[in-house]
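Section 5: illustrative case.
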């Protein structure tokens, strides 16, 4: 759809989903994707394996999933993201801002902030700021941050402060309400373009009052959208009519165009506007009233326990695997080198399952039971591969150089045989007594 509509632009954030598409795409499709990236119609934002949770994930896991995504991009597309998009985690941590800053991200967008903080920053026209680490005395850790001003990143909360107006511009969902009253979503035609165009322009003006520059960011999407050609057609056909109308009105003094996050950040930089500097975190999140999103800190504690254990196993494997591989190279043992080379894919698989579980609806436990079970199965699969790899590594380490023809066999039995069972026992079986092992 981007190839057919040259003025249209799109952003993609989570690499786990892009990798799934990439693995089954034809070479022509892969070439199309690269061309769209080159002409800046498509932009990869953040580039993490997932859009990580920032409240219950360990900081090393947040970093590892970012590395996994960035390495995938380098290996397959040869690109490095420069803009961050994190609109769904339930609260935001300066730790993530720090990691993004040092991974090459120049500007970032966040969303789920306590509504009273948003209100205060909006009154100060400080919804855009430089986010600084609390311990920093200079601007060395600053990263430019744009805060989405309203309740959600969805279409009905994006064009301006009035959702019953903005929801009219979702030309696919067809569900728009003003209170309990249903508002019909109409396709744009000659009879209603003046009314719809003026209302949209008025929402833009209201939104612009909250920011310091003369450019605003208006996301147009939601969860699981743009999945069909029909939706693409309906959205683009109507939006382009509205954009043409607004741009043709000299009294509006407004230009509307499609853009990526980098396009937006570039326009902000051109304005040479001065922005405030903030430090601190954005927890605990509340979207309305007393609805504080703190339950997920302890929801489904078994999964939170298990991911720490598997993350610990992964780190041990990475250290031991590297040592054994280097030792085999030093000894010029080609058989062992080839054997360990064959297992690099298993190590990557385990790392990707751990990275996947950092998703803001996985480690948080906020997915449905069905989805959580699927997360658990994937994590369990990675764990089982990890145990097999650890057995191989320990067998290599236990091998007696004085008896090179004797194979050491080590098997490890953990009782986490199913995703919903706890890990609480460990048994190591040796093929023969080994009194000098540590």
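Designed sequence:
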């Amino acid at each position: 759809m981007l190839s057919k509509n040259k003025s249209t632009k799109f952003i993609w954030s989570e690499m786990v989903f892009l990798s799934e598409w990439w693995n089954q795409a034809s070479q022509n499709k892969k070439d199309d994707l690269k061309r769209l990236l080159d002409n800046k119609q498509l932009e990869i934002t953040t580039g993490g394996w997932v859009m990580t949770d920032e409240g219950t994930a360990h900081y090393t896991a947040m970093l590892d999933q970012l590395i996994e995504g960035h390495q995938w991009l380098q290996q397959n597309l040869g690109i490095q993201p420069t803009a961050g998009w994190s609109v769904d985690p339930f609260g935001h941590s300066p730790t993530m801002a720090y990691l993004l800053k040092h991974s090459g991200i120049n500007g970032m967008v966040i969303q789920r902030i306590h509504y009273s903080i948003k209100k205060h920053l909006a009154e100060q026209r400080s919804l855009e700021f430089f986010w600084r680490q609390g311990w920093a005395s200079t601007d060395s850790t600053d990263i430019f941050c744009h805060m989405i001003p309203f309740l959600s990143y969805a279409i009905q909360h994006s064009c301006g402060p009035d959702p019953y107006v903005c929801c009219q511009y979702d030309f696919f969902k067809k569900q728009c309400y003003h209170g309990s009253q249903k508002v019909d979503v109409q396709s744009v035609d000659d009879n209603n373009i003046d009314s719809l165009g003026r209302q949209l322009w008025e929402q833009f003006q209201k939104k612009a009052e909250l920011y310091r520059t003369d450019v605003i960011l208006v996301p147009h999407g939601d969860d699981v959208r743009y999945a069909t050609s029909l939706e693409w057609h309906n959205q683009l056909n109507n939006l382009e009519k509205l954009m043409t109308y607004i741009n043709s009105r000299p009294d509006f003094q407004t230009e509307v165009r499609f853009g990526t996050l980098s396009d937006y950040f570039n326009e902000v930089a051109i304005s040479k506007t001065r922005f405030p500097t903030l430090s601190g975190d954005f927890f605990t999140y509340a979207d309305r009233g007393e609805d504080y999103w703190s339950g997920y800190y302890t929801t489904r504690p078994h999964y939170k326990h298990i991911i720490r254990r598997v993350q610990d196993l992964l780190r041990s494997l990475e250290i031991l695997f590297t040592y054994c591989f280097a030792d085999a190279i030093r000894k010029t043992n080609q058989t062992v080198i080839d054997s360990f080379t064959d297992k690099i894919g298993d190590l990557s698989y385990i790392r990707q399952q751990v990275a996947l579980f950092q998703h803001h609806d996985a480690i948080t436990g906020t997915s449905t039971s069905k989805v959580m079970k699927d997360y658990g199965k994937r994590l369990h699969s990675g764990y089982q591969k990890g145990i097999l790899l650890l057995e191989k590594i320990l067998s290599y380490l236990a091998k007696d150089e004085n008896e090179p023809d004797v194979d050491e066999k080590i098997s490890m039995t953990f009782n986490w045989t199913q995703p919903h069972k706890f890990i609480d026992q460990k048994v190591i079986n040796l093929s023969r007594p080994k009194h000098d092992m540590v």
